Amino acid sequence: MTSSTAPALTELLTFRLADQDYALDIMSVREIRGWTRTTSLPHAPSYMCGVINLRGTVLPVMDLAERLDLPVREKSDRNVIIVVKQGETMTGLLVDAVSDIVALSPDDLQPPPEMAPGTTQGVVSALTLIDDRMIRVLDLAATVTVPESAAA
Amino acid sequence: MSTPHDPMAEIRASFFIECEELLEALQDGLQVIEDDEADDETINVVFRAVHSIKGGAGAFSLEGLVRFAHRFETVLDLVRTGQMQVEANALKVFFQCADHLADLVRVCRDDAPLPEVRSEEILELLDALTGGPPIMQEKPGPEIDFSPKALTLDLTLGDETADAAMPFELPEPADLPPFPLADDAGEEERPGNYEITFTPSIELFETGNEPALLFRNLEALGDINVNCDASRLPALAALTPEAPHLSWQISLKTEADEAEIQSIFEFVEGLCTLEIVSTKGPDLDVEPTLSPAAIPTSMDSRFPTLPPEPESPPQITPEPSATPAPSPAASPKPAATKDKAAPNAAKSVVRVDLDRIERLVNLVGELVINQAMLSQSLEQSGLSPHSNAMNGLEEFQRLTRDIQDSVMMIRAQPVKSLFQRMSRIVRESSAAVAKDVRLRTEGETTEVDKTVIERLADPLTHIIRNAVDHGLETTSERLAAGKPAQGQVSLSAAHRSGRVVIEISDDGGGINRPKVLQIAIDKGLIPADATPSSSEIDNLLFLPGFSTATEVSDLSGRGVGMDVVRTAIQALGGRITISSDPGIGTTFSISLPLTLAVLDGMVIEVARETLVLPLNLVIETVTLTQNDVEMVRPGALVVRVRDGFVPIIDLGKELGYRDELEDLEGSVVLLIAHEDGNRAALLIDNIVDQRQVVIKGLDESLYRAPGIAAATILGDGQIALILDPSDIIAQSLNPSTARPAPMTEGMIA
């Protein structure tokens, strides 16, 4: 798939979420796990699924659809948890399914158009087209850090 | 100095670690002297500790520290050489010096400004002991400059001359008179001649040692002639710049004995090959460690001799290392090592980064969980209990338990360092209230988890200050009561049935119960008509805001009292109890878990969620019947426990798992002792199990759940949350106070 090894290419992991396509920089992805039951945290905001046991460490799992204000669907065994590392923190992101790994050059990515500021606006850092489908590239730092007001 | 890869900063850091050990040895030694159990070696240990700190401090140009250590050392040397007797008063000053030295070390470590005034005060006390600010009389050398001298090496190597001459010189301090040369030393009484062969290994240079300084110290012993042997120097092309190729032959004419020469090389022991051979002279009984081949038969005249240096005090080497790394080229040990045998040198110790231990602890925690999961699935698979797999599993379980225990032991440390800090607290606080107090310690070798030790310091300090300030009577009162004038505070530690018990007791007047009761009533802590039992009165001391001191003193009685102590102990998963005999004394007993990584937990179920509660907080469990529950007002229920009413807190509702239960019949409540001495009843569905659980920290950067202290992993691999009942109770009874859970940081050890 990566026919060229030019350093300018960024590799992205693409995944599906509520019938939309999203992508994350693959360098921040640590592993991908199947769905396991989470232990829910009391009084947690709706986007916090709870915590799971990741080989002996306690991993918080975030429902990415909830976080991005997308329609939430029933959880099933087909859901996937993408374990990402942002800074020193590991977080699990619950998504519908992982699709592909693509290598893109910066020219392929375009900034999202200016739109009315909303909660999901800041988390999409770029847009790109692959096979005629629009892929939203997420800014991981903005995704996993939740503003104080939203966390309360 | 702060970048992680700065080698100097690393050496500096290890110097301060060594300082801590040396300070401990110093305290130990002084304690032994105070206990009248000292032998000849003790004062040497004390002296060496101070000396090594001074030496290291000199290398890092910590002048304030050097100055103080030097004066202290000077006085200790008087004691060591028998010119001064240590009586009680002197010992007191020595303790103060040791404390101050510890302060100075810490100040230097943190790059904080030096407390010069305090140094001067203590030095005045020292001077008072010796009658003036003396320097070691027989070795005059005021205001010695300890900064390492630069050695100028002029390497003029021709390609063809592998063993070329190497002129090198030591810069000579200009303001000092030239030293008389070797020849006129013949008048000395018993000159012994020694041939010293000194071959440094690479480690010697890696640890920042400098041969020239050793030679200069040797020179102070007598007449010296140093020859450099560069015969092993390879051709320039083959030269490894880091590797040492030189060795030195030193002929020394001195009246000092071999042990004294040996002591100059004390800091480089193990870092070089050293041979000291007595060639003639009366000291033939000193057993020579002779390797005939190594003795040079002829000195190569091409090597210039070391220029003679002015006399400088011996044994001052700018080298912090007192624990040389074992080197394959270890020096042959002479027989006369009496001067340097440290009492516990036989015990070899490895310094390990705490992070690595943490990692190991975590891995073992994982192993335990994994093993539990494996057993669970094997049991479910319907294997015969006598099958090989099941037998193997049993062995596996046993091994896992052993590994877990051993790993926990690594984190364990003797409480000695903590006790030493406390003995300082006693000294300082007794001086502040002008009481004569002695601290007796017992069980210093008892080992407790490192984190526990660190977090015990504050509560213990508080209790001990209380004991000195309030517990012990004044000297006149003591004498009137027929007790010895000197009060005694005892501090003991022991392992008892899987826990550590630390007891602090004083031989004072005991708790003044009528007074305590009156204060509690005056402050409205208990109703005026209450008739509590003796032990209930004693426990009033733990109430928030209770302070018996009629005058607020410096030491204790600042309104924050024993309640803070109790909270701190509880945060460690411990309990504190108090007992008192009028006229005889008071004892505080603290019982702690051995480790913070494992918790004795009660596994409970609420609304089909499995949760864990620290077992030490549960006083009692009650299965409810209809008659037990009373309603105070809608939404506020209490349970009748014997004669008292305890508010019921529905855990399922508090945690948002479900709505309030309609029918409480058959539910279980757990009575929890709350911080202020009140009780609360947590309503749960049922109790599943009671077991040890491995504590796992929760990442709270995303979301901090109220009432949750940590998490653990159960045998089925699922995560169960560990509750912080105090937080839940506080939130439930007083919803406006959303406060941080006190257990959280400590439990994520």
Question: How would you characterize this protein structure?
Answer:
The complex is a heterodimer of chains A (152) and B (749). Chain A has one domain: Beta Barrel (OB fold (Dihydrolipoamide Acetyltransferase, E2P)), CATH 2.40.50. In chain A, 9% of the residues lie in helices and 45% in strands. Chain A has helices at residues 64-67, 140-144, 148-151; strands at residues 10-17, 20-25, 29-34, 48-54, 57-63, 80-86, 89-95, 97-104, 124-130, 133-138. In chain A, strands 8-1-2-10-9 form a five-stranded mixed β-sheet. A five-stranded mixed β-sheet of chain A has the order 3-6-7-5-4. The radius of gyration of chain A is 16 Å and the shape is globular. Chain B is of the alpha+beta class and 749 residues long. Chain B has five domains: 7-130, HPT domain (Four Helix Bundle (Hemerythrin (Met), subunit A)), CATH 1.20.120; 179-336, no CATH class; 355-412; 415-593, Histidine kinase-like ATPase, C-terminal domain (Heat Shock Protein 90), CATH 3.30.565; 598-747, Beta Barrel (OB fold (Dihydrolipoamide Acetyltransferase, E2P)). Chain B is 35% helix and 21% strand. In chain B, helix 1 (7-34) packs antiparallel against helix 2 (40-59). The two termini of chain B are 29 Å apart. The model of chain B is unreliable at 134-147, 156-189, 281-345, 550-559 and 736-749 (pLDDT under 50). Chain A binds chain B through residues 37, 39-45, 48, 51-53, 55-60, 62, 89-91, 144-146, 151, and chain B through 362-363, 365-366, 369-370, 609, 654-657, 696-699, 701-703, 705-708, 711, 713, 717-721.
